[in-house]
Amino acid sequence: MTNQNVIVSDRKPILGLQTITVSVSNSPLFSNSFPTYFTFPRRKFLKLLEAADNNNSNLVVAPKITTSWVDSMRDSSPTRLRSSSLDSVSDNDDKTSWIVRFPSALSMFDEIVNAAKGKQIVMFLDYDGTLSPIVEDPDKAFITHEMRGVVKDVALHFPTAIVTGRSIDKVRRFVKLNEIYYAGSHGMDIEGPTKENNYGQSNERVLFQPAREFLPMIEKVVKILEEKTKWIPGAMVENNKFCLSVHFRRVDEKRWDTLAEVVKSVLTDYPELKLNQGRKVLEIRPTIKWDKGQALNFLLKSLGYENSKDVVPVYIGDDRTDEDAFKVLREREQGFGILVSKIPKDTNASYSLKDPSQVKEFLKRLVEWKKKTVGEE
After folding, report:
1. Distance CA 358, CA 1 (A)
2. If exposure means fewest CB atoms within 10 Å of the residue's CB, which of 84, 90, 153, 214 is most exposed?
3. What share of the chain is helix, strand, coil (3-state, %, to 5)?
4. Pfam families from the entry (predicted)?
5. What is the pLDDT of residues 319-352, one digit of tens each?
6. How far is CA 362 from CA 203, 312, 358, in A?
């Protein structure tokens, strides 16, 4: 650690997670705008800190915790089993603490619907990991027939939108429902419900496309990345129309840093595009100020609920990109964000669900509750 500037985060352990993050500023990987960060279990870091002191390293306290892209890519991997029984106990404590802060939306169902009595619920649903399971091949992330039926029932009782990083064309082929709003490309492509005419053709209603001018650039970058990543086994470039995704779910972990560096090198020639981290995916989007949170606000405005106090937006999602929508609901102090996750994560959501099967159960109960309240009126 000699001759390196090391930054140590002083952030309090989140939900009992006993870790410390450090940054090594002269790392060759992700230089300039991407400093290298490493996260260690607290016990292990104390030994490293002692060794650093012996080498007279320069330690600076940082105001917040950050991770490098490669560390972030590892964070989106399946959790690994730990051999230490002490760590296992700590994990259980972490999960207990987390579920207290973000209780199950199923166990808190009555609380949620009581807050919605006499108000209009508007449903916002992510797709991958929320309505469909996460799969190795993103082209095979099919929604089940039962889930499709549940979403259709939800749309019959509440205005409903699917907000996804996928292109609208692709997610519509998966969902096959015309009764809902679709916000594709992280909300940069929004369409309203459609009706088929007598000739079986769909009358699509485009509501908003703030990144239309970026289409030629994105198509060009897709081709470049396809060429530059084709020698990395398992890498997949997906064109989502107004953004693109580089999937690394099937890439050997030893090649993740190489893949990330390839993507970063391509983007140096395209400053109008930015790189974001998703769940087992590197996502490239235009630098415009638009995300899933902005899409949520736009749809509420389109539905006439922009300033209404009688609306309860409910957003269910599993990805980091969904945090933008959760944050908007927090700022509005209106509605609920529900994170889909089996493991503790820092989030702006209010509640949690473990997987798509629990999402389906929650949506079914919501429809049943609505039918009952309508019958009581």
Report:
1. 47
2. 84
3. 40, 25, 35
4. Trehalose_PPase
5. 999 999 999 999 999 999 999 999 999 999 999 9
6. 32, 16, 6
Start-to-end Cα distance in the chain: 70
Token readout for 371 is 């039918």
Tokens of 363: 């949506």
Q: Say which residue the tokens 């230089």 belong to.
A: 31
What is the DSSP secondary-structure string of 133-156? ---SSGGG-PPPHHHHHHHHHHHH
350 contacts: CB under 8 Å, gap ≥ 6: 102, 329, 336, 337, 338
CA 167 – CA 36 distance, rounded (Å):
32
- The answer to whether the predicted template modeling score (pTM) of the entire model surpasses 0.85 is no
Distance CA 217, CA 35 (A): 27
Per-residue pLDDT tens digits for 57-98: 444 333 333 346 566 666 654 433 333 334 445 567 777 888
Residues 220, 222, 227: CA angle, nearest 5 degrees: 100
| Residue tagged 């470039």 (tokens) | 237
Rounded Cα distance between 334 and 311, Å, is: 8
Instruction: Name, in order, each residue with C-beta under 8 angstroms of 248's C-beta and a sequence gap of 6 or more.
Output: 73, 234, 235, 256, 259, 280, 281, 282
